[in-house]
Amino acid sequence: MEFFEAPWFTEDLGDYLTDDEYRQLQAFLVVNPRAGDVIRGTGGLRKIRWSQEARGKGKRGGVRVIYFLALADRILMIAVYDKDTQDDLSLRDRKTFKAYIELALLGLRASRKGSR
Questions:
Q1: DSSP type of residue 46
Q2: What does the alpha-carbon distance between residue 70 and residue 76 come to, in Å, rounded to a whole number?
Q3: Left, alpha or beta for 56 (phi > 0: left; psi -120 to 50: alpha)?
Q4: Mind listing the domains of the chain with CATH numbers?
Q5: Cα dihedral angle (69, 45, 5, 25), rounded to 10 degrees?
Q6: Model pLDDT for residues 27-76, shown as the tens digit of each residue
Q7: Rounded to whole angstroms, how far apart are CA atoms 72 and 61?
């Protein structure tokens, strides 16, 4: 499984997850790529709760991670945020992320064709 990160995901990641927590999340998604709940109106984005062990927060009070299973072997990491900051994605976020994954899919499919 190959992971790709949206620029804003990369920017925010260090604020919410340690390197070890992020590695654990990636390992979990490799085994369970469809683990998160699908978010309506986003073209297939998924939301998963993830614990912040370093901050003493379990899954319920931890972070929310938004990701997209782009192809069978590629996951786009879209957003990470704290439950205390934001509970659900705004309509604007949903539209922005949906447009982003549509463009990213075009690029991923083109790169896959080019590597054959």
A1: E
A2: 6
A3: left
A4: 2-114 (3.30.2310.20)
A5: -70
A6: 999 999 999 899 998 989 999 999 876 665 656 667 999 999 987 889 99
A7: 30
